[in-house]
Write a structure and sequence with these properties.
The protein is an alpha+beta fold. It is 37% helix and 29% strand. The chain has a four-stranded antiparallel beta sheet. A hairpin with a 6-residue loop joins strand 2 and strand 3. Helix 1 runs antiparallel to helix 3. The longest helix is centred in the first third of the chain and has 16 residues.
Length: 105
């Protein structure tokens, strides 16, 4: 499984707007065939900092995700309310036990 963490920081007073804008991506991504998980997390020490936990079958599924209409719509909507760019981190799952099954072993 291929995991992506995306950090998004929004402008003061824009938390509700972020949740409204981002719901489109949340619902659309969870319906994609290559998506296993898509969680929106809020930093308990900074209400304006969100981390998106995305689990996909592989990196190619992430590339397909970036071509969707819901992704494009959210990127456009975030441009008005985010501070700076989105920070992305990428990981390969090695545990739990089902990671081997996901890798086709």
């Amino acid at each position: 499984m291929f995991v992506q963490l995306v950090h998004i920081r929004v402008k003061p007073g824009c938390v509700d707007r972020f949740l409204e804008v981002f719901r489109v991506n949340f619902e659309g991504t969870r319906a994609e065939p290559g998506n296993y998980r898509f969680d929106v997390l809020q930093d308990p020490e900074d209400d304006h900092h969100f981390v998106i936990y995305e689990g996909f079958v592989n990196e190619a599924a992430v590339d397909e995700h970036r071509k969707t209409a819901h992704y494009a719509e959210v990127v456009k909507g975030l441009a008005e309310i985010q501070i700076g760019g989105r920070e992305k981190q990428f990981f390969r799952m090695v545990m739990p036990d089902h990671a081997a099954a996901l890798a086709g072993e």
